[in-house]
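INFO batch 0412 | record 1 of 1 | parsing
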Amino acid sequence: MGRKVTYCLSYPIVLTRLCVNRCGYCRFPIAGPERLPSLRVVRRHLREAARRGATQIELIAGEGISNDPDILTTVRYYGFASYQSYLTRILQMIEATNRRSHLFSLLNLGPLSLAELCLMRSYLCAVRIMLESADPALEFREAHLHSPHKSPDRRLEAILRCGKAGVPLTTGILVGIGESAASRTIAFDIIGRAHARYGHIQAVRIQMFHPAPATPMESFPQVGDDEFLEVVASARRHFGPDMAIQVSADEHPGLIGRLLDAGVNDFGDLSLRRPPSPHLSFDDLLERMAAETQAHGLALTRRFPVLGPYCTARWYPGGFPERIPYARAWMFAPAR
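INFO prediction complete | emitting tokens
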């Protein structure tokens, strides 16, 4: 990854909060839209994302819902035979945005079948599926007791399917949900072996658990900053200098300098739809990122949802011969 630190301006669209999982730390299924938006609504979001200067459209939905009766009823009402064909049409809309928009897709929908990935491959830029943990004991604790899709085996299968389909993938772990310290190293080994097999893991994301109200783990203590930073540093040691180690800057605005010291070289997807915190504006966060990276002798640059080494016709066929080359000069200009 060289001397660059990257980030992506993201416009997230929550398609639905229906989800088969009930993770003990997650408020996602508790409140919010359950009905899938129409294509007209999605187009309105794409126009707004382009107006705000977004790079990435992150499509977010719950897991294991493709055969849910409400989902099937809705997509058929919109004129689609399946949830997958509905998603494919949205990806086609993103790919069809004009050259000045520079909108690219990231799917954050949980595990997808190999058939789904292959059908969407021509229009799909990148995918995020978190391994979350390699500790099987979490299946019997608050974290994943009611989350059938969160077993380490099922997460690994989903990660490997992305490799078989040749889709660039961001994966990683969630720190502090009750996993053992030893299992974090095991998780890195699992990710490393998957990457050695297919070469498709573009970034390893380290995410900290934050207690959320109205969840079973709302009183669960979170790890301290020092422990979190040591996990980040251990990821850098484990994966070496060439892997992108990702931590979202908007989740840790006070730790940017220490994260760079620990080995972070990607600040993740910065949402244009919400401020980093009530006391920090989006512009202030960018200025802080730029100042810290400059102080470390690094260059802060914007990126696509697919990271630099994967901006090739092999890994992102939909981006060539026109989309990425036209957008590259604008996208990789140093942050101001």
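INFO post-check: The beta strands are 4-16, 56-61, 104-108, 126-128, 169-175, 201-208, 244-246, 266-271, 299-302.
INFO record closed
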